[in-house]
Design a protein that fits this description.
alpha/beta; 365 residues; 19% strand; 3-stranded mixed beta sheet; 6-stranded mixed beta sheet; 14 helices
C-alpha cells in the first residue's frame, strides 16, 4: 500500500535538499537555480517506529521490516503556473498524483541563495502556490460543469450526484478558499475524491529554517505556525541543511551532532510522523522468529482489510484475527506469555484495528 506526499514550493526554498535528506541519496539535484528538479523524484522512506524494534527483541526476529512512505520531490512552481508558466503544467499534473501536499516554505536569510521573487516571505510564498492551485481547480471545474449540467438535465444519475459537489467547490474557490475546507458527508466522499482537485488534498507546512534556528525556530517559522493554525494544518520546523548532513552520519555520530544543536531527534522523524498522521494512517504489527514487520492501514480499517494489506487471499478467506495489544505483548514478554495471561483476543470481521495491534490472521486458502 503506497502513500505519496508531494514536496511542493517555489524554487530555491530547500525542497530538493529536504528530499535528499529524506531518501539519504543525492537523487534530486539541489542547485541554485529554478527548475533543477525537472522530473519528480520519488523516494521510499522507512517510518521511524521504536515499537517495532522492541517487538523484534521479544519475538527474537531475524529481520525487521518497517512501514514505508513515498515522498515526491516536485519541480518548483512560479507565479503563473496555472497558465503554463515555468513548468506549470507538469507541476500541476504531478501534484494530482500525490495523496498529500507538504508546503516547503523558506524561513531563512541567505544572500547566496536567490529567491525567485527577490524576497524572503514564507506566507507570500504559500499564498503564491495556493493561488495557482486554486486557479487550476477553478478552470478545471468550470470546463467540466457545462457538460455535467447537460447530463444532469437529461437525467444522468451520476451527473446529478457530482454537479452539487462541483458547485460547492466552485463557491469556495471563487471566495478564495481551497476545496479542502468543504464539509462533505460520508455518502459523497467517494464522488468528492473523484473530482481530483489540487486544493482538496490535506496539507502540512514545513518551515525550512537556518541551522541556528533548528531548535527554537525564528520569526519566519512562527509566522508559518500562525498561518498553519488558520488553515487547521500541521507544521514542522526543520533545517533541511542539517538533515542532509545528518543523513551522511552513522547513528552514534547523529546523536552527538544533535546534542550539540540542542535537538533530541532528527527533524525528519517528526516530518515523517506528521506525514503519516496527515494521511490518516496507523500501524499494526506482525512479529515472529522470521521477521517483525510494521504494516500501514487507514485509521478505521477492519481486520479483513488489514489482512488484505498482507495478501489479498487473507482478506478473501478471512476467518479471524488473533490480536494482542502492543502494551500487553511487552508486559507479558511476548506472544506465548500474552496467550497464557489471556491477553490474546479473537477478533472477527467487524473488528476495527487499533494502532499498535500485534496480529496473526486465520484464513481459508
Amino acid at each position: 500500500m503506497g502513500f505519496k506526499c508531494g514536496i511542493v514550493g517555489l524554487p530555491n526554498v530547500g525542497k530538493s535538499t529536504l528530499f535528499n535528506a529524506l531518501t539519504k541519496t543525492a537523487a534530486a539535484q539541489a542547485a541554485n537555480y529554478p527548475f533543477c528538479t525537472i522530473e519528480p523524484n520519488v523516494g521510499d522512506v522507512a517510518v521511524p517506529e521504536p515499537r517495532l524494534l522492541r517487538l523484534a527483541e521479544f519475538a527474537k526476529s531475524s529481520e525487521i521490516v518497517p512501514a514505508r512512505m513515498q515522498f515526491v520531490d516536485i519541480a518548483g512552481l512560479v507565479r503563473g503556473a496555472s497558465k503554463g508558466e515555468g513548468l506549470g503544467n507538469q507541476f500541476l499534473a504531478n501534484i494530482r498524483e500525490v495523496d498529500a501536499v507538504l508546503y516547503v516554505l523558506r524561513c531563512f536569510d541567505d544572500g547566496d541563495i536567490t529567491h525567485v521573487e527577490g524576497r524572503v516571505d514564507p506566507i507570500a510564498d504559500f499564498e503564491t502556490v495556493e493561488t495557482e492551485l486554486m486557479i487550476a481547480d477553478l478552470e478545471s471545474l468550470e470546463k467540466r460543469r457545462t457538460n455535467l449540467a447537460k447530463k444532469a438535465t437529461g437525467g444522468d444519475k451520476e451527473a446529478k450526484t457530482v454537479l452539487p459537489l462541483i458547485d460547492l467547490a466552485l463557491d469556495l474557490l471563487q471566495e478564495g478558499q481551497p476545496a479542502r475546507r468543504a464539509q462533505i458527508g460520508k455518502d459523497d466522499a467517494k464522488a468528492w475524491r473523484g473530482l481530483q482537485l489540487l486544493t482538496q488534498k490535506p496539507v502540512l507546512f514545513v518551515a525550512n529554517v537556518d541551522e541556528g534556528s533548528a531548535a527554537s525556530g525564528n520569526d519566519y517559522s512562527r509566522a508559518v505556525e500562525a498561518r498553519a493554525a488558520e488553515e487547521n494544518a500541521g507544521v514542522v520546523a526543520i533545517a533541511a541543511k542539517i538533515e542532509e548532513e545528518l543523513a551522511q552520519l552513522d547513528e552514534d555520530e547523529q546523536v552527538e551532532y544533535l546534542a550539540t544543536l540542542g535537538l533530541e531527534e532528527p527533524g525528519l522523524n517528526r516530518l515523517i510522523r506528521e506525514g503519516f498522521k496527515l494521511l490518516g494512517l496507523q500501524t499494526f504489527f506482525t512479529a515472529g522468529p522470521k521477521e517483525a514487520r510494521a504494516w500501514t492501514i487507514r485509521a478505521g480499517a477492519t481486520a479483513p482489510q488489514a489482512a488484505g494489506v498482507i495478501h489479498t487471499d487473507f482478506e478473501r478467506g478471512f476467518i479471524r484475527a488473533e490480536t494482542i495489544s502492543y502494551d500487553d505483548y511487552l508486559a507479558c514478554n511476548g506472544e506465548t506469555g500474552a496467550k497464557e495471561a489471556g491477553k490474546m483476543r479473537l477478533e472477527g470481521k467487524e473488528y476495527l484495528v487499533r494502532d499498535g495491534d500485534v496480529m496473526m490472521f486465520r484464513f481459508n486458502a
